[in-house]
């Protein structure tokens, strides 16, 4: 075959493979129930995205629900932590959430129940999660878990049907952890993780998956191995990613990849500098 014909055949095959990929099923949404409505909407959204449509007929695939913009910690690189949000502190009213769920829920793949506040401070958040999980939507939350929690609350979280609970834990000891999680108490966090793990056992529930979210900064690089051991002991998956800071990137030379390790299941970690010295 002549080179030009061969090139054309290769390009045509590449295009066909890409088009076929468009119709793959959505993955990476733990616990989602794939109904025909969800799958068709997913394909429509991807099609519109591929074609660069600006008038959209597809519905959102993922919704971020900020159940509150209040937070108990004062993390220095967070808008809430350093008081920059400029909005009144409030809780999302349940009826507003229910309206959103009614409007979008049949097509949503996932709801992220967190953004800039501490969602578990909203006493209705488990009811919100329950409503989404009952509709077959994947649910995920990130929490600092650094507040008093009793066994009843731990059971409520498990019973809500939450699929993934990320716990913001950038250290393995109080001295390192509190440098970013200002006002946080690492032992309280560990105690709460144990309560939730015990509630999962009592209720014979495999969810939520517990994730040790370790954001990497210069001050905590040396505690990753200790965090790995702690995560293993607590039955958590360790996820390490580069932490952002206010001002210039701390990793000036780009030595660390943005996401170093992720995934469900047992602890998996190897923190690898992008360029070895
Ligand atoms: C602003 S927090 C609010 C949610 C919740 N209060 C918490 O602490 O997880 C939302 C997400 O941003 C992450 N986060 C906070 N500061 C970060 C940083 N400097 N770099 C990367 N991620 C950060 C948190 O770990 C969490 O997963």
Number of E-type strands: 7
Number of helical segments? Answer: 8
Give me the side-by-side strand order of the main sheet: 1-2-3-4-5-6-7
- What's the main sheet like? 7 strands, mixed
Number of domains: 2
Uncertain spans: 262-277
Rounded average pLDDT: 89
> Strand pairing plus helix content: what structural class?
alpha/beta
CA radius of gyration? 21 Å
**Cofactors, ions, other ligands:** S-adenosylmethionine
The fraction of residues in strands falls at: 5-15%
Indicate the multimeric state: single chain
The percent of residues in helical segments reads 25-40%
State the end-to-end distance: 47 Å
**String of helices and strands:** HHEHEHEHEHHEHEE
Described by the principal axes of the CA atoms, the overall outline is: globular
Overview features:
277 residues; alpha/beta; TIM Barrel; 2 domains; 12% strand; binds S-adenosylmethionine
Set out the fold topology.
Elements lengths: L2 H20 L13 H16 L10 E3 L29 H11 L5 E3 L12 H10 L3 E6 L7 H9 L4 E5 L5 H7 L5 H17 L6 E8 L7 H11 L2 E6 L16 E3 L16
Parallel strand pairs: 1-2, 2-3, 3-4, 4-5, 5-6
Antiparallel strand pairs: 6-7
The protein binds S-adenosylmethionine.
Summarize the structure.
The protein is of the alpha/beta class and about 280 residues long. It folds into two domains: about 30-145, TIM Barrel, CATH 3.20.20; about 160-275.
């Amino acid at each position: 075959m002549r080179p030009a014909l061969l090139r054309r055949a290769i390009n045509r095959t590449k295009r066909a493979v890409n088009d076929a990929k468009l119709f793959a099923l959505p993955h990476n949404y733990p616990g989602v129930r794939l109904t025909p409505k969800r799958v068709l909407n997913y394909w429509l959204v991807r099609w519109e995205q591929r074609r660069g449509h600006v008038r959209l007929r597809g519905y959102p695939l993922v919704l971020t629900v900020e159940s509150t913009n209040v937070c108990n910690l004062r993390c220095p690189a967070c808008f809430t932590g350093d008081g920059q949000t400029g909005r009144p502190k409030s809780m999302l009213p349940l009826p507003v959430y229910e309206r959103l769920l009614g409007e979008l829920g049949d097509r949503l793949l996932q709801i992220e129940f967190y953004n800039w506040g501490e969602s578990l401070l909203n006493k209705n958040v488990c009811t919100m999660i329950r409503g989404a999980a009952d509709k077959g939507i994947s649910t995920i939350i990130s929490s600092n878990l650094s507040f008093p929690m009793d066994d009843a609350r731990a059971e409520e979280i498990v019973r809500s049907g939450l699929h993934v609970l990320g716990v913001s834990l950038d250290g393995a000891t109080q001295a390192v952890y509190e440098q970013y999680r200002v006002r946080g108490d690492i032992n309280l966090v560990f105690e709460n993780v144990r309560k939730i793990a015990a509630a999962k056992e009592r209720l014979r529930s495999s969810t939520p998956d517990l994730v040790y979210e370790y954001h990497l900064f210069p001050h905590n690089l040396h505690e990753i191995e200790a965090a790995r051991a702690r995560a293993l002991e607590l039955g958590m998956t360790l996820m390490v990613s580069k932490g952002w800071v206010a001002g210039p990137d701390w990793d000036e030379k780009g030595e660390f990849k943005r996401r170093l390790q992720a995934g469900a299941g047992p602890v998996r970690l190897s923190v690898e500098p992008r360029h070895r010295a």
